[in-house]
Amino acid sequence: MVVQHRRKGGAFAAAAAVMAATATGCSAAADASPGADPGAAVRAAPDALTRAGTSKARTSMEMATGGTRVTIRGEGEYDFSARHGRLRVVLPEDPSGADGHRPITELLAPGALYMKNRGAGVPADKWVRVDTTTLEDGNLVTGGATDPAAAAELLRGARDVTHVGEEELAGVPVVHYRGVSDLGRAARLASPQVRGALAAAAKGFARDTVPFDAYLDREGRLRKVRHQFSFANEGRTVAVASTTLLYEFGAPVAVQLPPRKDIYAGRVRA
């Protein structure tokens, strides 16, 4: 998978390792109508999700460096009030034809990422726990799927936002906005449960802004967001496009974190 237990360079080196292995706080709701202030509408989207409570989620993370491009996909559900969720993450097929890695179960919680079927020497019945506040990217990239809450909270730092147009997404009318998110500002304004992870990301990325495309429904709820990250790894620039889709608001979400005895305490290989 895409995590290493190292602070410096862990997140970014891990993302590159996946490619190598594959190749081998509350505010009032903002009006999301076309005539609304674009910046205010986007910055209010995280609060609209908290009011909505829960949703199902699909994620896609595309990584490219040189001539290598891989896509990691996830699907599950998320509770924006409790800030926890579950994703089933599928790694890309091995081009050699060998059996692929089993899907990885990820549990997302404030400040932590739990993974089962991690591989890399971890027993099949054990979980790996990662403190996301120690990761250079705050788990925006490392887990192979951006935490939906973190993806939304990044928008609190939105600036230079423009209204692109009105579209339809899975039969739902949405308003498309484009801009950049200031990582430092997003971290300062983020909800307490997400603030630590975003603060780590603000320090870890080479650039302090992240381009995004956000799609909001008429209730101001985020339906889709695409962030474009980039970082240097061993002299090469790695481009990462992370997309999060949210749908079926109000869907039940049940997440039970693993007991201490089921968490692997040994060494995890890169």
What features would you highlight for this structure?
disordered N terminus, alpha+beta, outer membrane lipoprotein receptor (LolB), chain A, 38% strand, 270 residues
Strand content: 35-45%
Q: Reading side by side through the largest sheet, how are the strands ordered?
A: 6-5-4-3-2-1-11-10-9-8-7
What is the number of helical segments per DSSP (H or I, 4+ residues)?
6
Shape: globular
Give Rg in angstroms. Answer: 18 Å
Q: How many domain modules?
A: 1
Helix and strand run: HHHEEEEEEHEEHHEEE
Would you count the extended β strands for me?
Answer: 11
Output the CATH class name: Mainly Beta
Report on this model:
The longest helix has 14 residues, at 10-23. With 270 residues, this protein is an alpha+beta fold. β9 and β10 form a beta hairpin. It has a single domain (10-262), classed as outer membrane lipoprotein receptor (LolB), chain A, CATH 2.50.20.20. α5 (183-189) packs antiparallel against α6. It has six helices and eleven strands. The chain is 20% helix and 38% strand. The protein is globular, with a radius of gyration of 18 Å. The chain has helices at residues 10-23, 38-43, 45-52, 148-153, 183-189, 192-204, and strands spanning 54-65, 68-79, 84-90, 104-109, 112-116, 127-131, 158-169, 172-182, 209-216, 222-233, 236-247. It has an eleven-stranded antiparallel β-sheet. Mean pLDDT is 84; it is low at 1-29.
